[in-house]
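My current task is to audit a protein record that another person submitted. My question to you is simply how this chain folds and whether the tokens agree. This is what I was given:
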Amino acid sequence: MGPVIVAMSCLCLLFFLYQFYKLFDQRRDQHCYLVHYVCHKPSDDRKMDTKFCGNVVARNKNLGHPEYKFLLRVIVSSGIGEETFGPRNIFACRENSPTLQDGILEMEEFFIDTLDQLFRKTGVSLQEIDVLVVNVSLLAPVPSLTTMIINHYKMRDDIKSFNLTGMGCSASLISINLVQNISKSHKNAFALVVARGCSILLTNKRAFKNRAKLRLKCLVLTHLGASDEAHTCCMEKEDSEGRHGVYIGRNLPKMATLAFTRNIAGIAKKALPLKELILYIMLKYTRKLATLNLKTGLDHFCLHAGGVILIEGVKTSLGLSKHDVEPSRMTLHRFGNTSSSSIWYVLGYMEAKKRLKRGDKVWMIGFGSGFKCNSCVCEVMRDLADGNVWGDTIDGYPPKSIANPSMEQYGWINQEKLMVKNWIDVYEELNVYCLGGNKKV
């Protein structure tokens, strides 16, 4: 009996060791690596300076004096520079009558440019892609944009494809979360995330660990959609006169603050050291002013470039420096609000400035309708210095001044009392000829 018992004991031990190894091996394959990403840069003939934007406003016959005042104020105070880009239908004087085909052609241009570069730079074959996730909020053609990409590149018929719409400016992190969850049950998989103007290649293959730029550490999604106030603060809808557009309520900052606060609570538990969390709790319960020092666990802050007020609001609430928010401010200045892809343009700025060093932690934060605040923390896998979409302009950033060049001309627009002469000057200045024709507008 003795040898039998010993043999059985050895078998049991081997079985448990094997199960432990399987669990360990499975967890290793659940890591989500960001191999590479590419952001789209349109051609120079689509640049929209402030004067051109003013002309677009002026030729809109549906606007009265209050609307002109509001739009010019937005242009002057936007924080957007003179080299941002616009869609082709605006240059064709068709901003009031965009077609479905306009949107599809624009997305084709974005997708093909970024995906071609991504495959070329990584050396990954089209036939190796196992998962495809596309997110574009305000365009949902049939067949889907995902199908359009599969057709163009003749991808495998067993590819797992997902097309996300209506998810707002935080959608790229929702896509990343989807890939992360799929990676837990599919070994050695490649996934593509196409977030409007950016394409991202991810994998859980251990062989790509040293080639990857980032490794996903943790991700937190916050959705306040159960609240009617949050649900309706930002909506695609028609106004009382049947004009289609996006409505933004005055309560949006309130909902954004609430979503952000709850998201921070979730991300802090996962990203900050235990010592900082204990200190925060002790201060809070002794009725002292308690603030989290996020820099104890985070090195870089990749904020959605949704606007000056948003960026400055996050800067103030988190106690960040001008240096911390520089990438987001410069992205807004150079490219404007690029929706769900904006955080990747911000990341590109950090990389082009050679800020990202091995072991650094990057906090990426996105806001979106619903209302949602999504964020993730990534670890930099190696020193990064790719010029990417910023390559030809990075040496000029930050500029000496990011003040709008038309501030002197239209700065009076922010005054409550406006003189009639000011409006006459505006109408004379903006009374321009439509591009490509001789019809005065």
The chain has one domain: 33-47+83-396. The longest strand covers residues 214-223. The chain is about 40% helix and 15% strand.
